[in-house]
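# step 3/5: fold
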Amino acid sequence: MNLGIAMKPAMWSDAHLRLARQLGCESVVAWVPFPEGDGVWHEEQFRALVRQAEAHGLRLEAIENFHPAHWDHVVLGEPGREEQMENLCRTIRNAGRAGIRCFGYNFSACGVQGYRTDYNSGNQDGRGLAATKSFDEAMIPTEPQCNPYFWFNTRIERRGTAGILPPCGAEEFWERFRWFLERALPAAEEAGIKLCAHPDDPPVAFLRGIYRPLHSPEGMRRLLTLVPSPSNCLEFCQGTVSTMPDADIYSLIEEFASAGRIGYVHFRNTSGRLPRYSEVFIDEGYVDMPRALRLYRKCGFDGTVIPDHTPQVSAVSPWETGVGYALGYIRGLMQSLEDEERDGRS
């Protein structure tokens, strides 16, 4: 098990990669690292990121999320999905050839919605008046999603300005998911890469009339049997899974880690579950984080653990300070577990 960090394009820089290594990280996850381009992310693009990370003593562990414009037809079951699927497979193979081990994705039409994240509007509900990312089910928009805004906050110009994303029930959406997996997983196996599905955040069954297949433990289990493959894995967002109603986060960690179906982990804490919760500091939520990390290790998980994101703190550099606090906490837990094993107390 190793410590990592996720970076969006705005954060990806030599300075931040150097900082990540200084804070004890061994790996890095690149979140939607490239623009749309020609519909394919190319091997040399990935290799350039790999070289840059390695120059700072880091391994590029994963790419997180396809560009929304690369697969809107696939997720929505629209004409044009065959061409997009061919390009997605090329992207997956290119990432594998560059030595990247995991490719995270979120098979969702609407993305993340219902959160209060405008830190300038008085959202200071966290410890010491820190700004938290807070969810309230009553705040979820109910009107249909506008057509150009596939994946919530990404406008795809070619989709035009008129119309809505049509509603979609459970079985139809699962068939779209199956169609994708049947074509993507052989490419992933060939490339030696794990395709890692992020659970639906927030974990609600429908959003704007469209089904959310991974809103529950049952959905995650169904995913892993839908198209059997060693490359069919989870991007196990512990924060999201812990907000699912009645989910036992500890037994789920054991279940999926023991089966070898976790590619990498988003290790963050929350104040509770649906219908209302906040993404709090890593040391103050309801999940016993030392117990959780011990379970990953006990069950044989040997991948990357990242803090994902954290509350916004009052600092000159809020992101660096917040993520630095979370990384230090996780590194301390990891060292404690290593000490336990050395002392024969694990």
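# step 4/5: annotate
Residues 236 and 265 are 5 Å apart (CA to CA).
# step 5/5: archive (pending)
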